[in-house]
Each structure stands twice: as C-alpha cells, then as structure tokens.
Amino acid sequence: MTNTKNSPAAERIDQATLLHEQTDPLTHTPVHLLELKDVGKHYGNIIALTGVTMAVDTGRVTCVLGDNGAGKSTLIKIIAGLHQHTTGTLEIMGAERKLNSPREALDSGIAAVYQDLAVVSLMPIWRNFFLGSELTKGIGPFKSLDVEAMKKITKDELAAMGIDLRDVEQPIGQLSGGERQCVAIARAVHFGAKVLILDEPTAALGVKQSGVVLRYILQARDRGLGVIFITHNPHHAFPVGDRFLLLKRGKSIGYYDKKDITIDELTSQMAGGAELAELAHELEQAGGHDEVLAEVKAEVAETLGTQEPSHRA
Amino acid sequence: MTHVPVVETSTTGTDQRKVIHIMTNTVLTPPAAPKAADERVASKGAITTLLGRPEFGALVGAVAMFAFFALVAPVFLQPSSFATVLYGSSTIGIMAVGVSLLMIGGEFDLSTGVAVISSALSASLFSWYFGTNVWVGVVLALIVSLAVGFINGWILIKTNLPSFIVTLATFLMLTGLNLGLTRLIGGSVSTPSIADMDGFESAKAVFASSVNIAGVDVKITVFIWIALVAVASWILLRTRVGNWIFAVGGDDKAARAVGVPVVRTKIGLFMGVGFCAWILGMHNLFAFATVQSGEGIGNEFLYIIAAVIGGCLLTGGYGSAVGGAIGAFIFGMANKGIVYAEWNPDWFKFFLGLMLLLATIVNLVVKKRAETK
User: Taking every annotated instance into account, which residue ranges of this chain make up the domain ABC transporter (chain A) (predicted)?
Assistant: First the structure.
C-alpha cells in the first residue's frame, strides 16, 4: 500500500506504458524495505494466518492491531524468521525471500524486540547492551572486554534515543519496564537493525511508561528505521502509526494509511466498541456494580464516536 | 535454574480503558530536558557501591571471625599459625574458585569432592601400574578430570535435567569407581606409594612444596589458590566468557536469544571445576604419595558452602570469585581457629552451619538494600 491517492506519483504515466518492452527496475517502482503480499501460514490443516498484505518503509511506523489470537504473533514469527510462510510472498528491498532462522532475519536487518526483552535483570545495563556481541581489545588469550568503549557507546546510544540514564553500571532490572524496553530497542538499532519489530511493547506498562515507549518508537522512526509496532491498543497505535493493519481471527480485515482512517474507526474496526458493549451487557445482567457499569457505558459512548478529532496527533 | 525475581518488574494491571485518552495527549510531548544535577544519582555513594558488591557480607563475616579468634586464641595471630590457616583455606579455596564460577553460571556440582580423589587416583594408579614417569599420570589425570566435567555438562545440556540430579549421579558413580578400580588395580583401598617413582620429586615441587617467606613455610597451594582467584576474577569481569557466565546463570533463555553460546559456556564451566579438581587432586597425591580411595565424600558441600558464604547466589547470575575465596578463608579460620582456641573440634560443624546461615541472610539483606537504592 502506498500513497497513491493524492501523491504526485499517482499522476505520472504508468510505468508499463513508458517502458514498452524494456524493464528497468530503477524507475519509480515503489520498493519497500519490507513487503508482504497475501502472506499466509498453515500448520497442517489449521490456517493460522491468511491474506496479509503490508509494507514497511524507512522512517515509517506500520502498526499491526488485533486482539488475542488474531494472528499477530504468527505474523511476527514469519517476519522474524522463526516460522516460514506457506502462501504469498515476503520481499525485502524488492527481493523475494523466505527467512529460515532468526539469524537470517537479523542479517537482513530485521530485529525483533519481544515482550520478555531478552535482558538479564541482574546484569549491568552496558553488559546487557553488548551481551553476545561484546567489544574486545588485545589479542590472543589476553583479549579483554573494552569496558570503557562499551559503557560510552551504551550511554551515547541511549542518549540518542532520548533516554537519560542514571548510571549504565546499575543492574538492568532496576530500570522501569519502559526504560528496559528502550534499552532493548536501542540495542537493536545499534546492531544494525533496519526493520524493528516491537511485540506488544506497551502491553504490561502503565500510562506514563507506555507514553515513554511510544516516544522511543518515534525516535527510532526518526532515525530512519522501519518500525512494526504490534499492539492490541488502537489508542497506542494511532498517534505513532503511519499504516495500520488490522487482524482478526487470522485474517486481515483492513489495511489503512493514516489519512484514510480516524481513531474512532480504528477502534470500532478492532471491535473494541462492540466488546465493550458486550461487557456492559454482561455486567448489567449480573446485577449490582452500578458504578462500574456506568463507567463502562460512558466508555462505550466515548469509544464509539464522541471523540474529538484533535486527538489525532 | 531460572533467574531470580529479585527486582521488581514492570507495573501491571493498570486500567487500560481509563488511561487511553490521557495517552493520546501525552504521547508526543518532548522528552524532559535532562537536569544538570541528577537527583537520582546523589544517594549512591562509595559505601552503597561497596555494599552492592556480592562479597561484602562475606568480608564483614571474615573480619568479625578474624577478630574473634584473635581475641580468644592469641596463638592464632602467630605467622606460622596463620600460614596453617591459609593452607587449610587454600585446599577448600582452589575448588571454591571453579564451584563459584559454576554457581554464577546457574549450576552446581555435587561430584566435586570425589572428583578430586578420582583425579589423584587416576594419576597414581596409572603411573604405578604401567611404571611410567608420574608426569604421564599427571597429564592423564588432567584429561580424566576435564572429561568428568565435560560429561557432567554434556548430560545436563542433553537431558535438561537439573544439575542436582546429574551431578548426584556422577557423585555416586565416581564414588563406586574410585573404590572398585583402586581395589581391582592396586589390591587395596589405598593406592600403593609412588614416592620412589620417576618424576615424583619434580611433581611434588610443583604441587605440594612449601615456600619460605620470612621464616614461615607457606604451602604452594596458597599461591596457586591466589593465582586461580585472580585469573577467575579477570575472566569473570573482563572477558566475553565472563559476560556469558553471568548471562547463562541470570537468564539462559535471554542469553540464547542474543546469541550467547549457552551450551559451550555451561560445559566449559563444568570443565573448569574439573581443572580445579585436578590441581587439588595432584596436591593430595604428591603431599602424601598415596591416596585413600574412599576420601573426598562430603567435601563438595564445603566448596558449595564457601561459594554461598562468598555471596554467590544458589540460583545463578550473581557472585564473584573473590567471594568464594573469602568464603574458603572463613572456613579455614573456623576450622583451625577452634583448634587454636583449644575447643572441642566437635563444635566445628555447628560453627560452619551458623556461619552459612548468617552469611546467606547478610547477603540477602545487603543485596536487597543495594538494589533498591
């Protein structure tokens, strides 16, 4: 999906007409950093995912939205090389690929930051940052860690992400959930990621921490990364996203540019509104809990269309 | 072994529905400008840093115990007595180095006590039976010790069983092998003396001699011990392997996810324990020229106790080589101090247990304090 509606590109003469029989891939064929066309995944006769089309570009955030079991994790696993897709095509920089391992994905510049973050909480931040890719100096058996350089790079990389850290020597477990998320993101960026997959980075966080993480997503975007932001929360996705892919029960139920959709539409597409209404209904049936019921009802009303457009950042 | 949830993880359970609308407004506010003087750093002074070291609790314990025995048994302070204390500490300490590293790597080894004897037996019996230079036996013993470590680690990785079970099995098997093979080859429960064999004197000079320092004979194991602690500390804190040891002990899944060779690290740690067992085994052999095949049982706990007193977490990911050394020193002081104080040595085990309990509690408190500040 590209900006074909109003962008100048759409007004150009079609490539095929211009080129006649020549083929020149360098003309304005839009090549995405990562592109999925009609991708699907079957486990035997179980269809986990079908018909997913999406693109990731440098400096853009593609959000993947869906409730639990919608197929988000299957999608990430395909992109991160943990699973292979069974139908459709996956293209990296225009070349069709099938990623066989996370290492292969990493080598192609695709890094995933999972919910558990792969950090060792008792170890200092800088040791975590370079874990598995430590810098060394000296030769032979006397090769030792270049501690100063690693500390400095850690501090600088985190500062570039806008993270003001107390001390890179403290155990990473002392950081808040949001900060740890950011260290994991900064680590992926430093080690050459071009496409960054963030798996539910805000799921376990409070309001303030979620805000912090969303800010770092924008930082990563501004540094030229293509970000895939997986979430079940449209209110987290909308402010930072450029494109939105909606998944439900393993199917793509919509793929939008930001200009084509409002947060209210996004929310109701996610069926968040319908589910809230259902919850309200259930609460009503159960009786009691009047305060909670009133609150949920207010939320339903708000979610389904009374929100101001000014919320769109 | 999984990582310890020492540290509070992210906040959960916030009412998502309520937060949503605030979110959309706050997300895009620019990051707060960093303050010139960060108020968060101020509280962390030199003392807090010292308190945060894994071996701090043990250090306090060692100083207290030293002062205690210096008071009740003045003979304890004489250089010769002190050399004896150091020697006692070193025989535990050499093993405690390997065991500490292994424990930081998230595993432990119950076969270490008998593995020391296995190493000594294989050197002794091989050279005696084939009539070779004892150095051939010494090299063979090194191979045997490293192989025992490798097998422990390899079975652990392949089966995913807890190290408790795997090394308990190795412990029992080695105990049986030690007794069985010694009787089969040498015809007795102890090995024949190798004191008159080729190379014995030079091997004794390497593994079991004394160095005279200012009129006091200090056993060479003390120096080997100190060198091992220094090398282990360097590996742990200043090499990639050290980083990996902390990582596999702290959270092996996370370590694997970022490309740390978990299998190689763990097997290497078990082989490191094997190496230490070889050194101590050679010392035992060349100090007495003969080895009792039934010895060593129970010593594995002393090594583990030294590591734990020294601040290594039983669950992995935290500790230091220096800590293990201090733990061994505490053990040596208690062991010999009771003798110098002319108490009944029956009380020694009670002392040891009490020390273990106190040290672990102190470690726990110290670590919590350091981490929440």
Answer: 34-274
